[in-house]
Specification:
This protein is mostly helical. 73% of the residues lie in helices and 0% in strands. The protein has helices at residues 2-44, 51-65, 70-80, 95-115, 122-137, 141-150, 157-165, 172-185, 192-203. The model is unreliable at 1-27 and 84-89 (pLDDT under 50).
Amino acid sequence: MNALMRVSTFSLLIATCHLSCMKTQETPNNNFNTLYNLAHATLKDFNPSHNETTKNLITIIQTTKQIPSKKDLFTYLDTQSPQSPINPFCSKITTPLLIVFFDRIYNFLALLEKNSYTLPTLEEYQQHVKHEKFKKENNDLSIILEKASHMNILLCKETIEENLQQSPSLSTPDFNILIEDIHTKILNETNIKNIAKAIKLNTGLKL
């Protein structure tokens, strides 16, 4: 009986190690697949005003952080994504665009690491957007204060300005720049193929 138990225990250990190795081997590919599918879907319907776009971008950044090698990711993209548009509904989502997109993500991650910043949450980014919208709509705060005073409501301009300057996350302004770069530059770049080629050469990959 003891011998049988020892054999069973040994077999269980072998099976556990085998499964563990399989999981370790599968993790990179799973991350690549997740990134490719989510990036494709996010860029196809990219809209800075939609929470889903922001939420997906945060997930993409978090997943990209788990893949430290640009070479591995870019090589994977070359095998998965079309070099040219294959249908009119996602005509912009090509390998060159995805390479440029992810290189920009890696640059953002480098900025976070350099400054010891944390990635903003969806709620923190939403608060930042509201602050920026308020400042844009109320360029002259004294007008608002004057109208409030007519209602016998006393407000402190310095306190309001101080609170507007406070960002929920130190990286929120940079995250906002990232979104604008994707929306207004990367998705509209006409020379995206050559930029992607330059990025590949800069990364040490062959064209």
